[in-house]
Amino acid sequence: LEEAIVSVYREKRPTRCWQCVGKKNLPIEQRTRKFCSPGDLTKHFKRKHLRHIREGDSLVCELCKVSFINKMHLQRHGKEVHGPVT
Q: Which segments of the protein form a coiled coil according to its record (predicted)?
């Protein structure tokens, strides 16, 4: 898990999902899953994390414990702190 956490704070494109790594309720295998390519990670991120966000939803980076007021701010945080996923 420690390796997975460190890997989502790199400047190069990550292959692990920073949102999944931070979710303590997920099984360790899902939290540390490594995607074959950054493109696969992007697809995962859009399907599992962005698609279901609705107006007024509470948005939090579970890894950094930072809250956001909208999807755009969450995406910007991901890009600037965890690497370009979307």
A: none
